[in-house]
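User: Can you fold this complex?
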Amino acid sequence: MKKRKVYLDYAATTPVDSRVIRAMMPYLGEYFGNSMSLHAQGIKTSQAVEKAREIMAKALNAENEEIVFTGSATESNNLALKGVAEANPDKKKIIISAIEHDCVRNSAIWLRGKGYKVVMLPVDRVGKIDFEQLKTEIDEETLLVSIIHGNNEVGTIQDIGKIGALCRERGVYFHTDASQSFGKVPIDVKKMNIDLLTASSHKIYGPKGVAILYVRDGVKINPIIHGGGHEGGLRSATVNVAAIVGMGKAVELLKNSKAQNLKIKKLRDKLIKGILETIPDCWLNGDPKERLANNVNISFERVEGESMLMELDSRGIMCSTGSACSSNSLAPSHVLLAMGLNAPEAHGSLRFSLGRWTSEAEINYVLKKLPIVVKKMRQISPFKSFDKLKIKL
Amino acid sequence: MRQQFSYSKKVLKHFKSPHNLGKIKDADGVGEVGNLACGDVMKLYIKVEDNKIIDVKFQTYGCAAAIATSSITTDLVKGKTIEEALAMTNKEVIDSLDGLPPIKIHCSLLSVDALNEAIYNYLKENNKEIPEYLKQKHERIWVLQEAENKAEK
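Assistant: Here's the predicted assembly.
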């Protein structure tokens, strides 16, 4: 019997849609030209890149010139924070949330080392920032506010329209990392008053190695990579044509994403409900409602995430964990800790992220296997209860 | 610049089907080390007869490496004299598992600590002479755990 494989780690990365691969192929073979070349090969590839740019701009309600292709969402976030800081040396305060992805967080920490004041806004138990606190934190010194749209670990969605309006009114730049939310939550950079936005290709069934930074016309920003002046001077490097064409195609395919997201959301809720009902001593992390359609994050008491992950993997189920034991730092997820979980509660978390090809049969399979795994790991554990450690909600 | 680690087949085998899992109700010595903040807690039980460890069991909360190192430690120590058991190093644990990813080396130290603590507990309970280095090690483990528990609070 062929072993069942259930991939529930779409938030880590998605497979490339076959239609995307087909769209990319000519640009790996026949049309190989450098998009900066003036000859026929160059014209062909630069046209393809510009078409992808147009698709990206339309999807965000931006102008074509406002889309900068980069090599990754990490690079886009680095460019947003460091590039804006570099171009606006008068103001030295940057506000981020306590649950940013490491690429925003560590860019901000790097800037702190360069003399910037970095404020990390705390979040509540479900991972929402306190809007009133943001209001009081924005002062004369503030240059930039960077708040993640849909959180990668717990799926909580922030009200970026409200944050954007506030930042615009106060005259500070607003950047949002939409790597996880783009394609799942509608985004209109004009309506939402967004100055800079990061979106990634490999989270939406496009290839890895390409992302964008939307930079509103008028935002003062310097490049962090210098060279031949590609991408309006903001990102030098020979243009990764095939990947960009792939990202464009992936975004084009999102046109029908509304129905798909609804289907995924239904499966997500089935998985959440099923787990909470069948397994004792576990709870959902993140906002139950304002939540990415594909995110399930659950903490299991008295079990450690990495060992659960390994057990599930041996049964063909692939997911991820916020446990320290799966990271290089041996510290548990800063996102879960910021939400008020203690270390053992963070160690016991699992994230299942659903996607385009997740089926009901797969969810049923997880619901059948997961209770067995949790039970097994709890039997190995010396603890019968974490009662004394439990935090009051 | 190696990026990803992977577990050896032996680690995965011990993790999937741990040996000597559980509790010894009338244990002669029990050692508990690690802390919840770090995500590893090991509890090791020994049964001693004529200075020999005749039975050993464990319970572990932790990652796959923590469970595998606990399991192999019980295998290695069963049938050994107290002196032989005390001479065991974490290198033996690692070698018996065909290696551990560098970031998981601390798990092997933890399992040896658990064993040493169980022996310390046995010697103390039976009013036997405790070697000086074992006393010192017990102090060190105890002080460290207290400090970490405080930091967690």
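The two ends of chain A are 46 Å apart (CA to CA). Chain A touches chain B through 25 residues (CB under 8 Å).
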